[in-house]
Amino acid sequence: xxxxxxxxxxxxxxxxxxxxxxxxxxxxxxxxxxxxxxxxxxxxxxxxxxxxxxxxxxxxxxxxxxxxxxxxxxxxxx
Length: 78
Known about the structure:
It is a single chain. By secondary structure, this protein is mainly α. The protein has one domain: lambda repressor-like DNA-binding domains (434 Repressor (Amino-terminal Domain), Orthogonal Bundle). The protein has 5 helices and no strands. The protein has helices at 2-20, 23-29, 34-41, 49-58, 63-76. Helix 1 runs parallel beside helix 4 (49-58), helix 1 packs across helix 5 and helix 2 packs across helix 3. The two termini are 12 Å apart. The model has no long low-confidence stretch (mean pLDDT 93).
């Protein structure tokens, strides 16, 4: 389940970020690096859920939207 959550967050991050800013701009907003954003968007296992959430929030998502995203993953398995 954790893997599915991370992959869904990664996909969502990429979709949101592409509409709003470059990877370098997002990296600057969250005090990270552009290569780390690439890893986050590609679902690299070394990227923490915390970084994914921080990055998604930096694209303007609300905590509620992130919660909805995560809860919808569990409902897909039913």
